[in-house]
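Why does this matter for the project? Reviewers at the last site visit asked to see concrete outputs rather than summary tables. In response, this paragraph embeds two records directly. Each consists of the residue sequence and, immediately after it, the corresponding structure tokens. Nothing has been edited or filtered.
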Amino acid sequence: MPEQDYLAFQSPGSPAKWPSNENMNVVPSAAGLQPVPTGYITTVSGALAMTLIPLPWPGFSGTIVFIPTGAFTGATGGVATAVNKPIAKAFTAVVGQALALTYSSASGMWHPSI
């Protein structure tokens, strides 16, 4: 799949392209830490609670989208590191409903759309 430009989603110093518009692999929800998003859109399975989501690249600020195939949850209380950032508000994903998560470098947290 060709690389996609995401200039509208960029923060200063971020790469000009995501490796892919959509990660075609289904990523399982993981207790605590999610895998690094490798596409703007990622399909997430499972029903585990995540508390941290890694930044796609250093300096990232913007939005990623999870397409749930399971009712995983997001919980607060994750401890931030240089790469892994906590979730600002608890949520429960709804199967088939896109879930946008916006990372704000000002707050240092991921903010869910629901």
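We now turn to the second protein, recorded in exactly the same manner.
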Amino acid sequence: MVTLRRPPQYERPGPKLEPYQVVLRPIITEKATYLANPVAKTDEAGRQKSRQPAYTFEVNPLATKTEIKQAIQELFDVKVVNVRTQNRRGKARRYRLKVGRMRNWKKAIVTLSAEHRIDFY
């Protein structure tokens, strides 16, 4: 008998996050819009090359890639192929003579299968 998946080796410490607590908001920028709308291109040999749609979200800093994948699939009813994450440092900001810092946050770039889309508008 062949087992397809191993059970997780560990559980993330801390509270169990619900899907709406994992995904905080979509990030809609020019670059994120470009990634979400794949354009078919041809390479030097004349073959069609297309990339899969990828969407960018701000997520809970405690969330893992597996939790992000499950939350996106549950909230938007799509099939997630890949999840890439970045921990972004907050930028330094000034207000008059005081120097402060914006909060750190986590960004997730979620790649969907070719037949799925998410409409934000």
